[in-house]
Design goal:
Blueprint (H helix, E strand, L loop, with lengths): L5 H9 L4 H12 L3 E2 H8 L3 H14 L2 E4 L5 E4 L2 H28 L11 E4 L1 H14 L3 E7 L3 H5 L7 E7 L5 H8 L5 E6 L1 H5 L9 H6 L7 E5 L3 E5 L8 E5 L2 H19 L10
Parallel strand pairs: 5-6, 6-7
Antiparallel strand pairs: 1-3, 2-3, 4-10, 5-8, 8-9, 9-10
Helix pairs in contact: 1-2, 2-4, 3-4
Length: 276
């Protein structure tokens, strides 16, 4: 007989079975029926581990115990087994969500939450970005470069106020984003990289040199409910790191910059050096 594929064991792990339970169930599927000795010899698993796995599989409804001497076991069909495991997952997920949401309302505040945290890596940034979009209850303010555009294009939000600025030269992008976020609560603008590079009137002489060091597509500024922010400065860097905080001063400061940028980029205000 073939050995149990490691990929199958891993998949059954993800559905809630231990390594021993996954191997024993898979072996039972291969056998018409088997006693513990058959499984011990085939799987090279200790006797106590096999008996423990069989008892748990029978309790879960994945194996049927036949009252013989010695007791023999057979597996329920794979379709039924997967349905049972998925049903258990859904019940557990529903219960866990209810309890976790209750705990979230009772969240313990600490001094550390006022600190400025740094999150490293694309995946960690993506998870936090999606998490904040999902938790937003009142308002989302966001400005991003093209690097993070896929995050926005593949996300759904509640019917709440959204202010979104995307720095991109892609034609038709604004129309596409407006279709993705329909409704009167969505204020969406796509600005060109050239417009983003136009200095405001108060910009120091070093602005032009500063812009040469920028990587516009790295820009990420996100404020949720005026309570928490994520920010990635638009500069060159070998590794992606994002600033995350609930610090009121930091959130307020970025909010003011966000409001200024909204006027600067979208209200037709001319900030070019030759403007009168």
């Amino acid at each position: 007989m073939e050995s149990i594929p490691a990929s199958l064991v891993k998949s059954l792990n993800n559905l809630g079975l231990s390594n021993n339970e996954a191997n024993v169930y898979a072996a039972l599927v291969m056998f018409d029926n088997a006693d513990a000795k058959d499984l011990i010899e085939y799987l090279s698993i200790s006797k106590p581990s096999v008996y423990e796995a069989l008892d748990h599989l029978a309790e879960m409804g994945l194996a049927v115990k036949r009252i013989t001497k010695p007791a023999r076991y057979s597996a329920v069909s794979p379709h039924m087994a997967i349905d049972l495991l998925m049903g258990n997952h859904k019940k557990s997920a529903k219960l866990a969500l209810e309890k976790l949401e209750k705990l979230e309302l009772e969240k313990v505040r600490t001094d550390k939450e006022e600190a400025l945290w740094t999150i490293y890596g694309d995946k960690s940034v993506e998870y936090k970005f999606r998490d904040l979009f999902g938790k937003a209850k009142n308002h989302i303010r966001c400005m991003i470069g093209e690097r993070y555009l896929p995050l926005v294009e593949n996300i759904q939000i509640k019917d709440i106020s959204l202010s979104l600025i995307v720095i991109s030269d892609a034609p038709g992008l604004e129309k596409k984003l407006r279709a993705h976020f329909p409704g009167k609560n969505a204020d969406i603008h796509v600005i060109t990289s050239k417009k983003f590079a136009t200095p405001p009137p108060f910009a120091p002489p070093e602005f032009e040199e500063l812009h040469k060091l920028m990587r516009v597509e790295n820009t990420l500024e996100l404020i949720v409910d005026d309570e928490e922010l994520l920010m990635i400065p638009p500069f060159y860097s070998d590794t992606v790191s994002v600033l995350n905080t609930r610090n009121k001063g930091a959130v307020l400061q970025l909010k003011l910059f966000s409001q200024f940028n909204l006027k600067r980029f979208t209200d037709g205000m001319d900030f070019s050096p030759t403007a009168q």
